[in-house]
């Protein structure tokens, strides 16, 4: 991926999907009565919306960017967030929700890391490195919460 606007369109779509999924997980954890997990997922949704707004600002987008089907450069043909959340349903329990969230963050981190390794554009490399580091932080936070909830 060597075009900054295309890169940012991917980042925006990924964060849009992440925010939506985290809101769904927040609602599910509220239903399960797990306030700590619900609060965490609410915070993650807010981070995703913040990252989305930042990417839109960086790209000069006023609306969610639209790409033609053949312009999306997703691994396996779908965004990392979409692939990770395929197992989500209204009956998702706390451990499953945590695993789904972790999978989404890990897939997103790997997506950005692959761009770092393959792009020839220095701006795309810089931003994808930054975004990969943010996703790695999210992975670490999820792993920490998972250990705490399992104890």
Spatial extent as radius of gyration: 15 Å
Tally of strands: 0
- SSE topology string: HHHHH
Number of helices: 5
Question: Please, what is the oligomeric state?
Answer: single chain
The main β sheet shows up as: none
**Helices and strands: which structural class?**
mainly alpha
Give the rounded overall mean pLDDT. 88
Beta-strand level of the residues, as a percent range? under 5%
* First-residue to last-residue Cα separation: 42 Å
Q: Can you tell me the overall shape? A: elongated
Query: Which stretches are poorly predicted, pLDDT < 50 over at least 5 residues?
Result: none
Percent range of helical residues: over 70%
Element layout with pairings:
Elements: H1 4-32, H2 35-59, H3 80-84, H4 94-118, H5 122-150
Labels describing this entry:
mainly alpha, single chain, elongated
């Amino acid at each position: 991926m060597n075009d900054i606007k295309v890169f940012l369109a991917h980042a925006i779509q990924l964060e849009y999907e992440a925010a939506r999924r985290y809101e769904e997980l927040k609602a599910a954890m509220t239903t399960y009565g797990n306030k700590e997990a619900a609060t965490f997922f609410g915070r993650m949704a807010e981070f995703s919306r913040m990252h989305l707004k930042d990417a839109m600002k960086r790209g000069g987008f006023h609306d969610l960017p639209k790409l033609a089907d053949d312009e999306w450069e997703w691994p396996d043909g779908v965004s990392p967030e979409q692939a990770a959340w395929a197992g989500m349903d209204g009956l998702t329990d706390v451990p499953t929700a945590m695993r789904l969230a972790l999978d989404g963050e890990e897939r997103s981190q790997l997506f950005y890391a692959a761009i770092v390794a393959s792009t020839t554009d220095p701006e795309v490399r810089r931003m994808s490195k930054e975004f990969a580091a943010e996703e790695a932080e999210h992975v670490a936070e999820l792993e920490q919460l998972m250990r705490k909830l399992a104890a």
